Amino acid sequence: MTTAREKFDAIKKTLSVPVIGSPMFIVSNPKLVIAQCKAGVVGSFPALNARPAEALDQWLTEIGEALDAHNQANPDRPAAPFAVNQIVHRSNDRLQHDLEVCVKHEVPIMITSLGAREEVNEAVHSYGGLALHDVINNTYARKAVAKGADGLIAVAAGAGGHAGTLSPFALVEEIRAWFDGPLLLSGSIATGDGVLAAEAMGADAAYIGSAFIATEEANASEAYKQGIVDGHMEDIVYTNYFSGIHGNYLAQSIRKAGMDPFDLPLADPSKMDFKQASQGSAKVWKDIWGAGQGIGAVDRVQTAAAFIAELTEEYKSARKRLFDTH
Fold it and tell me: Nearest to residue 175, comparing CAs of 202, 138, 135, 133?
């Protein structure tokens, strides 16, 4: 029986750089996922981005066919696998439907967020898929593994969207003290040097989101993309006001909506409705833009392939510089 570690190591060998493109609400779509996978990183999208629910089957068919065609045409350079993100929070009344569609298509990697569910992991394991779960602290990490997650995504301080507040050094160190399975790191990573640093800390790969917003394939407005290009770490606001769960957002989008980004009230977490937030209300995701502190490294809008090529060269240069020096 192939272990989770063996599965992830096999996936990593298909990558041009050890990166998974994180699933972003509204922004991630088949066009971006296909471009990411063809260029050698794992592309992903939230199942809830496919609307109406029936569109999910169409999206998975489109992605599968595009990657199969690429692999047939490029047997020496196959595409990386893709992933689908499932929100397992109680407000997601699409979960069962979306999970069944993903099982039907045998999605290679399933990423779960906002809760850990044994039945979801079991469904992924039924066809040999890999189940990853994102966590913001060590307590949640232990719970996720106890409920059957194969791997973890450590969402550290500075990550875009819903994120934690812990140092990546501390978070990875404490998880690695007891967990030797696949571990990804998220939080302000937007360069090849950052990817190598994640590996040096003990992660298997980096989890990158915000930098992909500023790509031609991303389903984001030109203003949003330019906001990523123009923004810096001081422009990121950490608040639970918009969805009931703390996350990082671009200050200029909050200001444009008529609010003071640095004087927002606290929201009641019990009122959180992720289904509404994921549908792109005027308050969240569509007009209030999620972004991480690593956006200062993004200086232009380009294709996903061009960004990944740049990331790969930076990564190779960082490795050469490090190992040649030492």
Answer: 138
Give the contacts of 147 (CB within 8 A, at least 6 positions apart).
116, 117, 118, 121
- Count Cβ atoms within 10 A of the Cβ of residue 282 and give its class: 0-12 exposed, 13-18 middle, 19 or more buried: exposed
Question: From the CB of residue 169, how many other CB atoms can be counted at a distance below 10 Å?
Answer: 12
Kindly report the number of other CB atoms within 10 A of residue 204's CB atom: 20
* Rounded-to-integer distance, Cα 238 and Cα 249, Å: 7
Per-residue pLDDT of the chain (326 residues; tens, 9 = 90+): 789 999 999 999 999 999 999 999 999 999 999 999 999 999 999 999 999 999 999 999 999 999 999 999 999 999 999 999 999 988 899 999 999 999 999 999 999 999 899 999 999 999 999 999 999 999 999 999 999 999 999 999 999 988 999 999 999 999 999 999 999 999 999 999 999 999 999 999 999 999 999 999 999 999 999 999 999 999 999 999 888 889 999 999 999 989 999 999 888 776 555 444 433 444 567 889 999 999 999 999 999 999 999 999 999 999 999 887 65
Q: How far apart are CA 220 and CA 213, in angstroms?
A: 7
Nearest-5° Cα angle at 322, 319 to 323: 85
Are 184 and 22 contacting, i.e. CB atoms less than 8 angstroms apart? no
* Helices 30-39, 55-73: crossing angle, 10 deg rounding: 20
Selection from 180, 142, 191, 199 nearest residue 12 by Cα = 199
Q: How far is CA 227 from CA 89, 239, 250, 257, in A?
A: 30, 19, 8, 14
Distance between CA atoms of residues 298 and 307, nearest Å: 10
First to last CA, the chain: 39
| Total-model pTM | 0.93
Answer whether 295's CB lies under 8 Å from 224's CB.
no
Residue with tokens 């994180």: 22
